Amino acid sequence: MRLTKLFVLVLLTLGAMSLLIACGGDEVQAVKIGMLSPETGPIAQFAPGFADAADVALAEINTAYPDFTFELIVLDSGCDGTQAATAAQSLIDAGVSAIVGAACSGATLGAIAVAAPAGIPMLSYASTSPAITTANDDGRLFRIVPSDAQQAEALVDVVAHAGASNPAVLAMTNDYGAGLGDNFAANWSGSVCSQVGYDPTEGSYDASTLAQAVVDGGCDSVVLMSYGTDGAAIVEALIGQGFSGQIFGGDGIADSAFQNDFTDVSTLDQVVATRPRQGEESTAKVDFEAAYSAAGGADGAIYTHETYDTIKFIAAAIVSDPDGDLVAAMNATGKNYVGASGSHTFDSAGDVLGTGYSVCEFAVAGSVVDFGCSGTWTADGGLVF
Amino acid sequence: MTLIRESWTGIPFWQRRLLVSAFLIFDAYLGMIYNAGVIGWTGLINNDLKWLVLALEMMAGGLVLVNTFLNLARARWPAASLISTPLLVALFGLVILEIALSGLGRSATMNFNVAAIGLGGLYWAAAYLSIAIGLTLTYKVQRYANFAQAEMMLIGAYVALTLMWTDRFFPISDAPKDGVLNWELLIWAGIFAFAITGLAGLFIDRLVYKRLRSRLATPQVMMITSLGVAMVLRALLFMRFSAGTHRFVPDRDWRLATSSFEMPTERIQLHLGDRVNAPLMELANKVSPYAFTYTKIALIVGVFGSVIVLLLLLHRTRLGRQMRAVADNPDLAASSGIHVERVHGTSAFLSAGLTGLGGALLAAILPVNPELGLSLLLPAFAVVVLGTIGSVPGVIIGAIIVGLLRSVSEPILIGAGGALDRPTAAGFAEVMPFVFLVGLLLLAPRGIGHALQNWNIERIRKRRIANLEDDLPVTHDIPDSLLGMPDLEPHEPPVMERIAERKDRLFETVETLISSAWAVPVYIVGQLLASVHPARAAAIRFFPGWRLHPGRLIRIDRETERGSWVAFGIFFLILIVVVWLLPSVSTLTKTLQVARVMTLVGIFGLMAFSLNLHTGITGMTNFGVIFFVGIGAVTVGLLAAPVETNGYGWSPLAATAVAVLLSAVAGWLLAYPTARLRMDYFAIVTISLGEMLRISLQAEPLLRAGTVTSAIGISQYSRPFESWWSSGPSDFVGSILGLPNGAPYVVLLGILSVAALLAIWFVLNTLLASPWGRILRSIREDEEVSKHHGHNILTHKAASLAVGAAVAGLAGALWAWLNASIFPDFMNPVRSTFLVWAAFIVGGRGNNRGMIVGAFLIVIVEFVFNVMVVARGNSSLAFHDLTTYMDSVFSWLVIDVGGLIWSARSISEAFPRGDVTVALSHLKLALIGSVIVAALLLSPKGLLPEVPTRPKRPSPAPETDRTPDEYDSDEVL
């Protein structure tokens, strides 16, 4: 075949693309913050929530710091190391000062391999894998979510305090669920009745089967390491199979918005869940939630508080020392930083130590759901109600 | 020596196999119980790995045993041996578990709840069947694997949601619970989902596949086109309905936790291993009934019911006969007056519609988001293969088997996982369909449907013989039976015939309806296409000197060696220019960017080489590129990770050597069970292997390294020359490039990748120019002929698989170094295998230069799109106006145009913030999908077609030596 119109077509398209790209060299002086969000891939359903929370934070920082114009560039991480790294490269090419994200641990680790040599710090809002702690990052990788290990300890105390002796553990087979589940089982002193992993992608698991495994195993309680939607399906299935024991959960379900995942909220009664504790006398959480729902944020979202915090935190760090080293500024700002997801202090590995956990419970009367956090758990103080 | 060999070969074959199997089983038994045997004595392997190897050894022995048994029994009891085989293998698996647990001194309890397994299995069967039935129909009539079938399910689910959000039905869905089931919305949702999804399928068939059929595209091309269609559809749904999760509530009472039948049940408890005071098996007392929700019953009844109606349609109506005739032989069908295209259209309508119905019913059970259906697609393929591609009864049985298998395996995995410190083992339930499929194909390579068909033929033949024997005396008694023959029909009970006739008429009407409904979009598309011509004329008028026939200006024949090189050079240069033009803020970031592009082009280029060798040259449709890449990456990561974090502490280069070798061995071994399989079977087996490895990364602790807590993923492995690089060369290269500090490691990786790419390119070209390359091509063209010429097809295929797998393994090693960590999502076929296939098709099958161009293209597209997204928020950039314009068009389409169809509620549910904007990351996927489809429609041979190797002739071939097909594609352009 000869060089035909196809050829010219390709030439033209590529030429047009290059022309547009060439025009792309901009000169606007503004602080750019990059964000990696899993817009495609296995947890795409949570991306709208991340974006909405980020927009709330962006509006606030632009009001709070009038001397700066913050711009947020959101790229798709695809929940995958390779795509996230390419996206991080594009963000760095666009001149961002810092990158917020990614959500999936694999994506975060892929992206830091690009960001670290470029000297750009990263702050993840949802990566819980322990591999983040040990990543080869020149001290440039931070995260605002506490490690699984501590929350597992908190859950162990909560479950034991409730008098359960033979809990079943239902955990997702991703780094969050499996990590939390394994740590729970390792810390639990008695017997774990049955530990079952499942893939939270809809259509990959059958909630009734999981519930049946709990009932058949004769377990007296269930500990869920889940996100909201799958957690709700499992709770409903448990009730449907006649399970009468107590149900506990991690921060995937510890939000009053969890009730939106239910068809019939009465099954939610007396579900107990732990989540990172907010700072003393902080209104950050309440303020954020009000702003989030006012902005029409997506329902059933997870890690929105953390997403909001990361962007506000980056802005605070940049403002504190506009021309200095951002990594140093982040370490300085990250001392008892009070955010919507709790009070955060970074350790030398860029992890937050956490200020303990709140113990919350759903109480249902009729169709009214009351979600209240009455207890707290801290590493040294233990469980206090 | 010879004596031993002679006495060995003197034993009958089956006895030899029995001896081998007995040795394997006995040796593994010794190893498990007494830590003795070959593995125990050598002591090379320890801990978990030892147990794994022992279990595999025993399983291998068991498989040989079962296979020997099957060979012996097949002749006498064909059906029974086939059915009992999987049961025997499963039983043997339990025996292995029992022995292993005894050896470990642990015990496992498995709870088999009869009702939960049976009904849960039926639920899975219905979910798989709803996709598998559409796949089967497409396979049967249109003869390609339709990867867009999962998207049809998604369309069905969203039709149900959209219907729920209408003002007419929303009150029903939103009403408080009252204890009464309201059927109205559910039934309408099913009908609408069937009709609308069916029409969508018909529309796509006319728009895309009809053109491909008319130019006699191969099933491979159709399959890849469907991949593109799938990307476009899913992306469009993402853009319209956003990524959020929604619930389809046909009426609140349907979805209550208490809306279920209480099924009385029994629970069988199995205690394996070192059990104390517990019997092997017991019936549990006090078993609460199993609650089976109404929504699941609706799904099962709806899906199985519609499939049975389809079976009736295929076997009892004229339309069905026509469809079967077209499936058997389209040319013959056309010659006997069947409107083949109409039959294709009906088939497309039915296959999409049935899956859409399943989607609507599934939406009543699962929360709906645009990822729905993907996790069901691959198991559905397994179901289709299991039931012998294209057989409807086969697929029903296949679905039930796979469904039951999945629900039976769950208690086993939960019990065994608990006892073996593998709480995530239940995750393996997802791959059980694949494991079963691969195992079955090893034992019975032609699927269940084939056995069914044989059994059926046998049955009919026996009945005939029996009838003949019965009839013989009767014929003697009634001598005028010959005369009676034509009169037989009036004696038949006329009711069935009349019903059949009515049905025929009904379907005629349906067909007319479909074709008239079809006329509208055809008209619109036709008008759109017609308007292209004025545009083209205007363009010519605008540029009077410039003709849109550049072929007359420059003539490069891309199917000659020289022309191919020139075209390659041009494409390559353009791509280099695009990379050069990609914006970046500093020299350092630009260096990083170029190095990243180089590395990615190296990795994807190697993967495309591998695919090209397997598929483009040897003709084996390999959908498991990521399987071999994964073996390479995982091996490199595990072996080179520090010992204290569950790794093995090897040097990266030694690990790479082992990784490449392992991939090659895997490729070679794969040939033996699979090389004889049909093309589609091979594709499904390879894609299944990739999925199995991916799920293993999630669920198997042995495949985790890099953290002390053995969290999912592999990280912290050492990379080659990393310390050497930072000890000096880094600064040296950095000073050349003008960087403030040393050059980052990725620069070295980029150089390594490009070097690897060039080296492998040279090696492959040498190999392909050798006689071996010609043999591979001849296998692709005609296996029988190559066999006739004395070539051992199996060995050559195995060698081709091994070489390609080794190349892919090397790509995997490079990939592992680039990402610095390996997580299960890395093996997602959408981001690896399918992308490489796109590069392969767009670049040009059978041409390694095309592979490089294709790989380069898919790498660059990602960067260019990111630039576009970056521009969105910045009003000073050229792309900004474009994205704003796109947003306004999209908003107009959704609100003003779409608003005629759907309610305002359905818009506000998807866009809760009120701003209807384009999701660019999904637009990207839609565009990549459209590029794949367009490339295949316009230029099926790719940018750089294969250069045919012809022996040199005394006189040069005339320049116009082209096939008519290419003239056609020329005209289309």
Description:
The complex is a heterodimer of chains A (385) and B (973). Chain A has 2 domains: 178 residues, Response regulator (Rossmann fold, 3-Layer(aba) Sandwich), CATH 3.40.50.2300; 151 residues, Rossmann fold. With 385 residues, chain A is an alpha/beta fold. Chain A has 11 helices and 15 strands. In chain A, 39% of the residues lie in helices and 20% in strands. In chain A, strand 6, helix 6 and strand 7 form a beta-alpha-beta unit. In chain A, the strands form 3 sheets. Chain A has an 8-stranded mixed sheet, with helices on both faces. A 5-stranded parallel sheet of chain A has the order 2-1-3-4-5, sandwiched between helices. Chain A has a two-stranded antiparallel sheet with strand order 11-12. In chain B, helix 23 runs parallel beside helix 29 and helix 29 runs antiparallel to helix 32. Chain B starts with a helix and ends with a helix. At the A-B interface, helix 1, helix 2, strand 2, helix 3 and helix 4 of A face helix 6, strand 5, helix 15, helix 16 and helix 22 of B.
Q: How would the blueprint of this fold be written?
A:
The complex is a heterodimer of chains A (385) and B (973).
Chain A: H1 5-22, E1 31-37, H2 47-64, E2 70-76, H3 81-93, E3 98-100, H4 105-118, E4 122-124, E5 141-143, H5 148-161, E6 167-172, H6 175-187, E7 194-198, H7 207-216, E8 221-225, H8 228-240, E9 246-249, E10 272-276, H9 284-294, H10 304-320, H11 326-333, E11 337-339, E12 342-344, E13 357-365, E14 368-378, E15 382-384
Parallel strand pairs in A: 1-2, 1-3, 3-4, 4-5, 6-7, 6-8, 8-9, 9-10
Antiparallel strand pairs in A: 10-13, 11-12, 13-14, 14-15
Chain B: H1 2-10, H2 13-34, H3 37-42, H4 47-74, H5 78-104, E1 107-113, H6 114-142, H7 149-164, H8 170-174, H9 184-214, H10 219-241, E2 260-263, E3 267-273, E4 281-283, E5 290-293, H11 294-316, H12 318-328, H13 330-335, H14 340-363, H15 374-386, H16 392-419, H17 432-443, H18 447-477, H19 481-484, H20 488-491, H21 494-542, H22 561-581, H23 587-617, H24 625-640, H25 652-674, H26 679-699, E6 714-715, H27 722-726, H28 729-737, H29 745-769, H30 771-781, H31 783-788, H32 793-819, E7 821-822, H33 833-843, H34 848-872, H35 878-897, H36 904-910, H37 920-938, H38 964-972
Antiparallel strand pairs in B: 1-3, 2-5, 3-4, 6-7
Helix pairs in contact in B: 2-4, 2-5, 4-5, 6-7, 6-11, 6-14, 6-15, 6-16, 7-9, 7-10, 7-14, 9-10, 9-14, 10-37, 11-12, 11-14, 12-14, 15-16, 15-17, 15-26, 16-18, 17-26, 22-34, 23-29, 23-32, 23-33, 23-34, 24-25, 24-26, 24-32, 25-32, 29-32, 30-32, 33-34, 34-37
